[in-house]
Design a protein that fits this description.
Number of strands: 6
Radius of gyration: 13 Å
Strand content: over 45%
Structural class: mainly beta
Order of helices and strands: EEEEEE
Shape: flat
Strand order of the largest sheet: 1-2-3-4-5-6
Length: about 70
């Protein structure tokens, strides 16, 4: 089965989240955005779980912090 593109928008039509799903679960690289279009957060999913490094961005889109996610069972 091939991942399907996914996009959700704020009420004003600007992008809110963008990524892909597989069997209804988020998979691969995802990004979330503020209403002004700056990136808020990005990272990867593996079978619906956050995996690896996730980056949070400040109000102007610069890296604020990077968090290493642990999978359940790790």
């Amino acid at each position: 089965m091939k991942p399907a593109p996914f996009e959700q928008r704020h009420k004003d039509g600007s992008p809110w989240a963008r990524g892909q799903t597989l069997d209804g679960l988020p998979t691969g690289y995802w990004e979330w955005f503020r209403k002004d279009g700056t990136r808020l957060r990005s990272g990867h999913f593996d079978r619906g779980e956050q995996a690896g490094e996730w980056t949070t961005y400040d109000a102007v889109g610069q890296v604020y912090k990077v968090t290493r996610m642990r999978r359940s069972g790790d």
